[in-house]
Amino acid sequence: MGNSPYSSLGLGELYSDAFTGSSGMGQSGVSTANSFEINNLNPALWVRNKFTTLDFGVVGQYKKIESGSARQTNGGGNLGYVALSFPVASRWTLGVSIKPYSFTDFSNKSSKIIAGTPIYADYYNSGKGGINKVSITNAVQIGKYLSLGLESSYIFGNVRKASEAAIGDGTDYLASVNDRTTYNDIAFKGGAALRIPIKKNNKLNLNVGGAYSLGTRINAVNTVSFELTQSSFPVIEPDTLVNKRNGSVKLPAQYQVGFSFEWPYKLTLSADYSHESWTDYRSFGSSDPKNGLSDVDRMHLGVEYTPRFGSLSYFDNVRYRAGFSTGNTPYVVKENNIKDTNFSLGFTFPMGRGYQNFVSLSFIGGQRGVMGTGMIRERYGKVALGLTLRESWFQKQKID
């Protein structure tokens, strides 16, 4: 996803649980879903998918990073998600998915004089890697209005960080410390959604929903090694400072709640609030409550409009979206909390026979951080592309 200085903190930069459709609505939608696409913000909403549905998404990003007089532009892309849901029974839907959870990708350089000498040393810090999540989701309908869901996930991945110092006296000495941490464990997320009819004949619904991710400790294995080279040749044998030390990382609890007004197949207005308790995060082998991270509180607002569902005109069946999201991030730099604000637009285009399949596009633009001494500002643009394929599987054939 490109150079991200903030990904050096905590577990790296976090991916949103929102699929392409929700991304175009300010990452809102924990209370509302339709039968066309999978809504991954709330496990309880998977039950709205009455067809076997395959959702696939990719995401790309371009951004400008500024710190003082330094400027950098870069971009990147990654798999956003792959998800499959199918109805096991009329009131029970089962789903599986895989998506990134977080990524680490940063590189920076600084130069300082070695104490007591006139010689400069160049210091390099870099990190690569990420954590992924494979999930099984069960969603059930309870009565007419209430649905419940549970997402059970296996989290896995690794992150590699390196700190290097090169002496600038012509000797080409390079000292390197390499750190690799591998993660794996299980995590759970529950959700509930309530759809309350306000007008008869399904003309207007009030939706209320929420999702809660349990705080958990995930297993981690850490290895640290040291190397000293001259002109790329080892001066001494590489030394393993820490060899496969077992530990854990504490992930915080997270929740998102919201409500929406839904005129079915016409208009949806949604508002969500999300909270992530990153002050509870504990890094590998640390019980220090001063982890340099802060709690995250965000507001998400979104609207979706369909001009005339079922019309013979193609563009009357296109779904149009807009959204807004604002709040802080987990990152704290020089005792300043880093805030993030973004706007989004989205479209879903029907395709195929009977318009049963869809292509979705979402555009997100925003800013994270501000300019100042020792601060970093990122202005970014993201594009999310999703493909939804639906099929009526597991249905008994009938002859009239």
Write a concise synopsis of the structure shown.
With 400 residues, the chain is mainly β.
Question: What tags apply to this protein structure?
Answer:
400 residues, mainly beta, Porin, 14-stranded antiparallel barrel, 1 helix, 18 strands
What does this structure look like?
The chain has a single domain, classed as Outer membrane protein transport protein (OMPP1/FadL/TodX) (Porin), CATH 2.40.160.60. 1% of the residues lie in helices and 65% in strands. The protein has one helix and 18 strands. A 14-stranded antiparallel barrel has the order 2-3-4-5-6-7-8-12-13-14-15-16-17-18. It starts with 12 loop residues before the first strand and ends in a 9-residue tail after the last strand.
Order of helices and strands: EHEEEEEEEEEEEEEEEEE
Q: Unreliable runs, pLDDT <50, ≥5 residues?
A: none
- Alpha-beta content class: mainly beta
- Sheet with most strands: 14 strands, antiparallel, barrel
* Number of discrete domains: 1
Instruction: Estimate the helix proportion, in percent.
Output: under 10%
Strand content: over 45%
CATH homologous superfamily classification: Outer membrane protein transport protein (OMPP1/FadL/TodX)
What is the mean predicted local confidence, pLDDT? Answer: 89
The total of helices stands at: 1
CATH class: Mainly Beta
CATH topology grouping: Porin
Tell me the Rg in angstroms: 24 Å
Give the strand order, joined by hyphens, for the main sheet: 2-3-4-5-6-7-8-12-13-14-15-16-17-18
Compute the number of strand runs: 18
Identify the CATH architecture.
Beta Barrel
Basic shape: elongated
Distance between the termini: 54 Å
